[in-house]
Amino acid sequence: MDPETSITRHNNFRSFVQGLMLLFRCATGEAWPSIMLSCVKGRRCDPRAQKPEGEACGSNLAYAYFVSFIFFCSFLMLNLFVAVIMDNFDYLTRDSSILGAHHLDEFVRIWAEYDPNATGKIHYTEMYDMLKNMDPPLGFGNKCPNRLAYKKLIRMNMPVDGDGKVNFTTTLFALIRENLSIKVRSAEEMDQADEELRETVKKIWPLQAKKMLDILIPRNDELSKGKLTVGKIYAGLLILENWRTTRFGQIESAGVPVSI
What's the pTM? Predict the structure, then answer.
């Protein structure tokens, strides 16, 4: 070891660990040219190298080795830096209206607040409150007008059981279908659209469709006239709200005081 050079007792290639620490120091850019010049041909040998006295050590390959090593480390750090910037840029410019996996996690979390026993069902009135408290695109948001929320629920039209409750999977799939406009048509063509969607699901997931198909897309007989659905409930509420608006408007235009 030559104390006058950069290869010293603490800065050398004697062992794998010491060599790794030296290369890490070079990667930070600290005095790597001096370390490179200390490894070129013509330097004195370490006594432990068991070289004949007077024979020089080192190699001119040190120039190529250290320059390529520094270039590789700089290239790697630059790519890491760019990757971090691009990842943050993508996060900041991400369109929040596009449905993603994190929205599904939010739906599960908020549903659990209304269904603490994990029964997989909640009352349709709780479902409405839940969607109003859930931000778009999966939810409606607390600023969504009641009429617009009613119209979305009418299109979703999930079946309601005897206790007035809706199913978790049915509600989630209906929300995804409404948000992504999957086979969403006018009221007269929705039965045909449901059948087409059922056939599509069967082709994509032939095994899972046997168990989940009726839950994802309820049969038309479950949405028939004798069955209670979310669409029918909120269609009635929408008619009632329109009647109230029209009725009170006529009374106010006639100058008759309104008493509630």
Answer: 0.57
